[in-house]
Every structure is written in C-alpha cells, then in structure tokens.
Amino acid sequence: MRSKTSTCRVHRTLLLALSALASCAGALPTAPLPTRPLVLSTWPFGQTANDLALAVLQKGGSRLDAVETGIREIERLSSDGSVGLGGRPNAAGYPQLDACIMDGPQHRAGSVAGVEGIVHPITAARRVMEATKHVMLVGEGARWFALEQGVEAVDTKDLAAKKDAWVARARDPKVDRAGHDTIALLVLDADGHIAGGCSTSGAGGKLPGRVGDSPILGAGLYVDDEVGAAGATGIGENVMRYCATFLIVERMRQGLTPQQACEEVVHRIARVDPKGYALDICFIALDKQGRYGAAASNQMFPYAIATSAGSEVQKVAAVTAR
Ligand code: GLY
Q1: Interatomic CA distance for residues 86 and 104, integer angstroms
Q2: pLDDT digit string (tens) for 30-75?
Q3: Which of 138, 213, 284, 301 to mutate to test the pocket of ligand 1 (most atoms within 8 A of CB)?
Q4: Number of structural domains, the chain?
Q5: Three-class SS of residue 256?
Q6: In 157-291, where do the E strands start and end?
Q7: Ligand 1 atom at minimum distance from 237 CA
C-alpha cells in the first residue's frame, strides 16, 4: 500500500505538472498564490506591524508572538498618536489604554482596559490570557497585575507632564482631538490557525474610565478558528453596541467572503443606528482560506496586508449607502 507521504508527493507532482501545463496552454487555472501565513492590520502604520509579525512567523515563531511583536512596535512608536502611552489622553489628561489578544485554537483570550502607565498593554493582555484564569482586567487591577508580571511600566506620576503637553496641544486648533486609529492585527499562520490583537489609547478626551470596543471580545476583535477573524477601528461606541466583529465572523460562517461580511455589517449597523452611515467605523477580516477584506462606513480606509508574496497598504472606499 502506498504511504500517505508518497501519495502526497505524487499529488503535489501532478499539481505542479498541471499548473505548468496551464500556464503554457492557458487552459487551466494556475496554482494560487501562497496565502499562508498572512497578516492583516488596520491603517498604514499597520504595515510596520505586519512586516515584524510576518518575520516572526517566517523564523518559526508562534502566531501569538507575531501578534504581540507587531502590536508592541506600534505601541512603542505611538506614531499615529492613538496607540500606546504616546496616544490620546483622556479628559483628565492621562492616556488610559485598552488592548486584547485572542487565539483561535481553544478560543483563548486576554484583555486589559483603562490601564495607566503600561508601555505594552498588548503584552499585559497576553499575560492575562496565559497566566490567569480570567479574561479581562481593568484599571488599577490591570496595572497592578502588569507590574507584578514584569510588563514594562512608567511611574503614573510622570503622566502629569503628559497632561501639560496635552493641554498645550489641545489649544492648537489644527490638532484633531477626537479621532483615534486603533491597531487591530490578524494573523493566519502557515498551519491555518488564527490569532489577533488590538491596542489603542481610545478616543481623545474620553471620560476617565471610559472603555471602548478594542478590549471587548466580539466588539473590537473576534477570532474563531473554525471560520476566521475580524478587527475594528473607529468610534468604539458605534462598534460595541452591535458586537460588530462577532457579527462579521458569523456572517462569514454563513458563507459570505470577508469583504462581503465587513460591508454587510456596516450596512446592518447603518440601517439601525440613528447616525446612519455617519458612524466612523472601519473593519478588517480574514478567513481560513486566506481571503481578506475591509470596509468603512463613511471614509476612505487604508489597511495593511502582508504575505510571503509582499507587503503593502491597500485602500477601500466608504461603502455605498443602500
Ligand atoms: N476604537 C477605539 C475606541 O473607540 O476606543
């Protein structure tokens, strides 16, 4: 009897021969581009995170290491001004950070919300997932836990300087005080398993203690290893009231592509919400087959995609209102 390995080898040889024949004759479809591993994230700054995450995977690192490494870099850079400690302070002048991480196999997750002075909330979220029996820690408790776990932190007393800087900046009429650009990053690894993470300072000028969609599973991020994953950015209140990423994944389960599912959920929210399409929400999603998509309610939405074939920023226009 032929072994499984030699059968696979025969199949692979046959596929390669067919694919070569097809590219000569133009009669059969050529072999698809490799889609695994694949890293997808929000906004142009996501490209930096994607490239680091992909490098982790290509060196044999885990999908969780990839998610954490990519997001840590954006937290460190705080380049867009709304992720990490350099992000947007709340109404009291202090950044309070939200983050979560989720792993497809075993449906594990960890999350921190409203945490102050923690340099890498994504790492704190991963420690919640891996070192506790809980899923979510908030505020002082989340900070205490992160410190106890050795996650890099700054003295929260130092945040007073940040407040002064923020107040000075807030006087500048050119500064967009309300906007915020969360990083959500999704990874499909070479074995077809999925993980994701999300990190943000949330809306600038939010009330102290306000928690957005980003650390809430099913709102800012959702991963289901049977189907796919979705991540969100934009005004958290308009995402979390609809469990939007959970909904996107469930629509993919029912047969929609990631692109269709993202668009469908924007339309669904707009249909119900008093704001209509003026929601300021954007989504990314990928599925087990390596298909991906994105949609936005009322703006051009750039997002980043990386595979072994290349790394780039793509853009999607706002959905056309129905
Ligand atoms: N999407 C981030 C937030 O609203 O906090």
Answers
A1: 30
A2: 555 568 999 999 999 999 999 999 999 999 999 999 999 999 999 9
A3: 213
A4: 1
A5: coil
A6: 183-188, 194-200, 221-224, 228-234, 281-287
A7: 4
Assigned domain for 27 exists: no
| Residue 270 domain flag | yes
Query: Rounded CA gap, 42 and 30, in Å?
Result: 30
Q: Is residue 20 part of a domain?
A: no
Name the DSSP letter for residue 321.
P
Give 197 Cα–ligand 1 centroid separation in angstroms.
14
* Predicted TM-score (pTM) of this structure: 0.86
- Which stretch of DSSP H or E encloses residue 85? none
| Residues within 6 Å of ligand 1 by CB | 180, 182, 200, 202-203, 212-214, 233-236
Joined together, the tokens standing for residue 39 give: 């890293």
Domain annotation covers residue 201: yes
| Residue 146: strand, helix, or coil | helix
Tokens of 314: 């793509």
Quick: pLDDT tens for 108-166.
999 999 999 999 999 999 999 999 999 999 999 999 999 999 999 988 876 676 667 66
What is the CATH number for 62? 3.60.20.30
Domain that holds residue 188: 32-316
